[in-house]
Design goal:
heterodimer; A: mainly alpha; three-stranded antiparallel sheet; 14 helices; about 5% strand; B: mainly alpha; about 0% strand
């Protein structure tokens, strides 16, 4: 069983194993089967799913609008409706304009579990410790910390995925070129790796952040542009190895174009180790983003992120809830991605066998 | 050895050019050239609201003069050479914030950060190596598993969180007061104190920053050390050493450890950029007047020349670190320096 997988990741996917019907599905079905056996990695995987769920449904989990409202004999779904309004498909119902939902009387309303938005300022309740009203307390402006954390998960998730997406595109292309063509291209790209690795990335980040106007897309782009080296190195070494396999020689001999060989024939087989560094890269990007937004660099000041909530604790050291919860969220997220990454590495990288 | 060092130094030149080129290009990518930035920065500093027409004209004249003075009207590659020359002669221009020379601003801050980083590197290796050796020799025992789990969790703890938690819970907020919340020494620090009192006071202040700066490093490196030890332990010559009756202690200390250290020394090169980045966070949180804190303040003040100077200095520091790790590598593994010529 183990041996057959070793073969699978080093040989073309066309070698089918008895385990599955089609080889392409086979690798990933096998990976999932082995991955699932590692309980801790699986727990990490479920945490990641939970985080994605929170990010996607943030508006339904923490919102000052009710999910359902029965008002003057009509039924409304204000949260859903606001999506349609944002998409300019519908306008806001006129009778509900400028209304404070919480002060409506004699109506049936179902609020989300956290009846606040992350931007709801309540100057009468600044820095309140956790209570039944505010589960995780409030910050300096009286904003609900729980709501901030739920909506902050969107930012950390999107930064992780977009930044690593950029890094994957750059890393895979450069790594593929260097590994496939070798000679001077390889020398130039390898030099580039060395330069990127010697750059104090965090200083580069704050330098760029100082020059451009803070924006979340800018931050995604800079993190992506500075974190591709790991992915590129993995891609390069996989391409170096696979390039010398017989099936590539066969493809070259029948005149398949270089581009097609690289991206159609080699890349799918080189992907496995790259995926590990992608998962670990997401964790890294989330860490960098939280540090940047903690320092208030690179993200707009009005944006509530896990890092920005955490930062308020350093100005009000009695407010322990501002330190404990958002930091724990960053920690758990990073840990979950690490666990998934390590679990995948054990499954995908046969070289590590026997080391653990 | 000297020839090897010289050879490494020469190989570093392209990397140096690459890093400085990145810095130069970022500076040029910024909207407007440095002369315009300087004009804008100067105005922001003087809070110049409501610029009249003739004032604007005089600004234009000044911008044109600066352009000529700093060679900004020359082609790009010549500008780069000028910039590089300024970098080597430590002429970083003047701060937008207070018109002081940037070099005098950073000169007394660089040593603080260097000391902090050297201390952290020492802690990283002094903790990681014994931990890795212990884990590898006690492989798969309870102790090894605990070390593995703790190291893995520590590696995932974000520095910003650990530092904020320390500040809130053990630095004299509403909870414990075990360590000072910031600075390098107490307010009543007196240079005439006996040396042990000075040392005690300073190490009390430096304890938390150094630990916070290094825990991620030793958590990660102890794993590398373990893997590297296990790899060496599986080799034939170790079995030979055991077979000839050498005490296990000697086998580990003399034969296995030395060879397992080789990959760990190369890790120094990748540890350094992370440490320099981490010192921005730690120095800001614990108000330590080093490069990192200055970098943070300069970014907030949009003081580009200072930020650029700090970027260059930290890049040079990283390169020096890489050079040192190369030289150390040839000490740990003599084959590297002399092997090729034999």
């Amino acid at each position: 069983m183990n041996d057959s997988r070793c073969e699978l990741s080093s040989a073309p996917a066309a070698v089918s194993t008895p385990r599955t019907a089609t080889a392409d599905v086979g690798l990933w079905a096998g990976v999932w089967k082995d991955f699932r056996r590692n309980r801790i990695a699986l727990a990490g995987y479920y945490v990641v799913l939970l985080l994605i769920f929170t990010a996607v449904f943030a508006d339904f989990l923490a919102n000052d609008k009710p999910l359902y409202l029965s008002y003057k004999g009509n039924s409304y779904f204000p949260v859903l409706r606001s999506y349609l309004v944002d998409l300019k498909l519908r306008s806001r119902p006129a009778e509900l304009l400028n209304i404070d939902y919480k002060k409506l009387e004699g109506v049936a309303a179902v609020f989300p579990p956290i009846p606040y938005r992350q931007t709801d300022v309540d100057l009468f309740a600044p820095l309140e410790p956790p209570s039944a009203r505010h589960w995780l307390g409030t910050d300096r402006l009286g904003r609900d910390v729980m709501a901030g954390m739920i909506h902050g998960s969107r930012i950390s998730l999107s930064i992780g995925f977009v930044a690593v997406g950029i890094a994957v595109v750059i890393g895979v292309i450069l790594g593929a070129l260097a590994g496939y063509f070798g000679s001077w291209i390889d020398i130039v790209v390898s030099r580039l790796f060395e330069i990127m690795l010697s750059i104090p990335t965090f200083f580069l980040l704050i330098t760029v952040a100082a020059i451009f106007r803070p924006s979340i897309f800018m931050t995604m782009a800079i993190i992506g542009l500075t974190s591709w080296v790991g992915i590129a190195r993995f891609t390069r070494s996989e391409f170096l190895r696979i390039r010398n396999l017989d099936y590539v020689t066969a493809a070259i001999s029948i005149g398949v174009s270089s581009r097609k060989i690289m991206f159609r024939h080699i890349l799918p087989n080189a992907l496995a180790p790259v995926i590990v560094s992608v998962v670990l890269g997401i964790a890294g990007a989330i860490l960098v983003e939280s540090s940047l937004s903690f320092l208030g660099i690179g993200v707009p000041a009005e944006l509530v992120t896990w890092g920005s909530i955490l930062n308020e604790a350093s100005g009000a050291t009695f407010a322990w809830w501002l330190a404990v919860f958002p930091g724990f969220a960053i920690f758990i997220t990073v840990l979950a991605y690490y666990l998934v990454g390590e679990g995948l590495r054990e499954v995908l990288d046969p070289r590590l066998r026997g080391l653990r | 050895m000297a020839a090897y060092a010289f050879q490494r130094l020469l190989l570093m030149i392209p990397t140096f050019i690459g890093i400085t080129l990145v810095g130069f290009l970022i500076m040029r990518l910024a909207p407007g050239d440095p002369a315009e930035l300087r004009a804008a920065g100067g105005l922001a500093g003087a809070a110049g609201a409501g610029i009249s027409v003739d004032k604007q004209a005089s600004i234009d004249v000044a911008v044109a003069q600066w352009r000529q003075q700093y060679g900004l009207d020359r082609p790009l590659h010549i500008q780069y050479v000028i910039w590089l020359k300024n970098l080597i002669t430590l002429d970083f221009g003047e701060s937008f914030k207070d018109n002081q020379s940037v070099w005098t601003k950073i000169a007394d801050r660089v040593p603080i950060t260097i000391n902090l980083n050297i201390l952290s590197i020492l802690v990283v290796y002094l903790v990681a190596i014994p931990l890795g050796v212990y884990s590898a020799t006690q492989r798969n025992t309870f102790g090894d598993q605990v070390t593995t789990v703790v190291a893995f969790i520590l590696f995932a703890v974000p520095t910003v969180w650990a530092a904020t938690m320390a500040l809130v819970f053990i630095c004299g907020g509403d909870f414990l007061y075990l360590f000072p919340p910031g600075g390098l020494s107490s307010v009543d620090y007196d240079p005439s104190w006996p040396w042990w009192k000075k040392l005690q006071n300073q190490s009390w202040h430096l304890f938390l920053p150094v630990v916070l700066l290094s825990y991620g490093g030793f958590a990660g490196l102890s794993r590398y050390m373990r893997a590297s030890m296990l790899e060496v332990l599986g080799q034939d010559y170790v079995q030979v050493a055991r077979a000839k009756g050498l005490a296990e202690r000697l086998v580990i200390m003399k034969h296995v450890m030395r060879n397992s250290l080789i990959p760990l020394v190369t890790m120094l090169a990748s540890l350094l950029p992370a440490l320099i980045g981490g010192s921005v966070i730690i120095e800001t949180i614990f108000s330590i007047p080093g490069m990192g804190q200055l970098g943070y303040e300069s970014v907030r003040a949009r003081d580009y020349p200072t930020v650029m100077a700090l970027y260059s200095v930290s890049a040079v520091l990283t390169l020096v670190g890489i050079l040192i790790s190369d030289l150390l590598l040839s000490v740990v593994d003599p084959r590297i320096a002399f092997g090729r010529r034999q």
